[in-house]
Amino acid sequence: MLNQYIPVLMHLLVVVGFATMTLLMSVWFGRRSTSKQDIKDTAYECGMIPIGENQPRFSVKFYIVAMLFVLFDIEVVFLYPWAVVFRDFLSADQILIFWSILGFVGILFVAYLYALKKRALNWVG
Amino acid sequence: MPAYILELIVVGLGLILLLLESFLPRLGAKGLAAIGSVGLLVVLFLLPSVTGAPSESTGIIWKFYSADSLALFYKGLALITTILVLMMSVVYVPVMQRYLGTGGGVGEYLILPVFTCAGLMWMASANDLTSIFVSLEVVTIGFYIMVAYMRRNVGSLEAGVKYLILGAVSTGFLVYGIAFLFGVTGQTNLDVISTVLGLLEGQDKIILFSFALLLVAFGFKVAAVPFQMWVPDVYQGAPTPTAAFLSVGSKAAGFIVLSRIVDAFLGDHGVQTGDGSYQDQIQRVLLVVAGATILFGSLAAIPQTNFKRLMAYSSISHAGFILLALACAYPVRMDMASGEVVAFYLAAYLPMTMAAFFVLCIVRSSRGEEEISVLDGLGKRSPFLAFVLLVSVMGLAGIPLTVGFLGKLYVFQAALDQGHFVLLAIATLGAAAGFYYYFKVVRSMYWNAPSDQDAIAVGTGSRVLLALLAAAIIFLGLNQGIILGFLR
User: Fold this and answer.
1) Which of B11, B22, B60 sits opposite A114 (nearest CB)?
2) What is the pLDDT along chain A (125 residues), one digit of tens a residue?
3) Are A118 and B11 inside 8 Å of each other by CB?
4) Which of B105, B178, B283, B322 is deepest in the core (most CB within 10 A)?
5) Is the dihedral of CA B339, B341, B344, B348 positive or negative?
6) pTM of the model
7) Bridge partners for B126 per DSSP
8) Alpha carbon distances (Å) from B284 to B46, B339, B345, B352
9) Of A96, A111, A117, which has the smallest distance from its Cβ to B23's Cβ?
10) Residue B151 CB coordination number (10 Å)
């Protein structure tokens, strides 16, 4: 009965072991010197300097590109399940599935033209 | 031609406008509005020729979509509203340009109503919880942008943030309610849900809970108390054409969906009031909300000095009257179903509200203010604008010979039929308060001394439209058969 939980236990061990090993390894190999050094005593935040203004300003271009990326990324996500069921629908004579995805992609194509023409993808200027 | 072609045409029109706007920038706001409204007008003329579901309905779409006479009626309302909003936007463009900053165009402001119109039309036909949700989001997301469109104006941004956050919360309630309803019935189609609910025994609590969640969501859309907090601030901050669009289009679509949902819950239960069934409790909740909405809207409108806030509270109180009609399901002695009373009231509400906001747009673009005091002496300066506004507020107050009177009359008749005498008293009180606060506008126009003598310039197109709206308010009030004819 309890045997089926062994993978969970192993998973737990791996998780705890990974966290412990990461911490220990950085102590072993980091060769933290005992003398006081500012750069080595700062908290590690993925390479970013952890202290600064609390609301740094980003150019609005980042947001526009990120939004467009999400939009067209989601489009592709929708295409996957469509492609999976496409053949089944065709064999059931449901040609509607073709026109509906054409409409969907068509709307996004117009949106793409609009974004291009509005220079949303131009980084300079 | 099946009815859903209309929505496809409207979306296609929106896409064409979007391309025209980006590739032919010299078309300008006027050109876009002209193409948009002509396109929508064509769709409006196609409306009577569409057909509903074929008898041996094969298409999967008819599981999500209905094209009964009520749906077609609301589609017509959505189209007329959008055309008027586009016309109004053209007048309002100079005001908006002041708040756009460099590089901000107004083109999208004239295209978004077209997409929103497609959503409103789809909402009118939606009879499945999934299509209701999707069409509602199409409408709401369009409104989020339009409300916050004047991005250098603090009021517009504040309105946008309020509308966005509260709208998102209400959408959350909607999804939660849909989930519960689906959990109880295992269905999403409202007709099937109605049948299944009639067969369920002893599930009253969970049915009521899901109805309460749905009522919260749609109470927000139609501005019913206690979900009305956003209305005055959003109306005041949003561009005036958007406020008009919210007040007529969004409300009408909210009510058609709410009435379909209420119908599904009540089923063919009939009028057995006081038997303690969940249908009876739903009716009682609706009555309480309707009464509170009428009272709050009417009383809070009295001290307002800003015209748009006044219209916001007036729109809350009108929502109360419509909810009262909705709560009086199955009036026995009238030959109108409660859904038809609701539709009639909304059709009457359209020209009155649109005329008032249209006049306000014109006044705002020349005076830059929206307080009631800006109308001082309008009767002397611009007799035509003053007369149109007079007709419109007469209609909103419900004075006989206007279409607003007929709308209120049917609601009162329905309430009388059902014997809701407390609600009748509240409604009378609300209507009486309405006479007072609408009269403030009339007093300002005709009694107060004008602050300056210049007449306000009105373009020919606006003049024709305003005259048409004023004529509609009176003409439809004299011939009640016209709206009823469209309804059936």
Assistant:
1) B22
2) 778 889 999 999 999 999 999 989 887 887 666 666 676 667 766 777 777 777 777 788 888 889 999 999 999 999 999 999 988 888 887 788 888 899 999 999 999 999 998 888 888 75
3) no
4) B322
5) negative
6) 0.88
7) B65
8) 41, 17, 21, 30
9) A117
10) 13
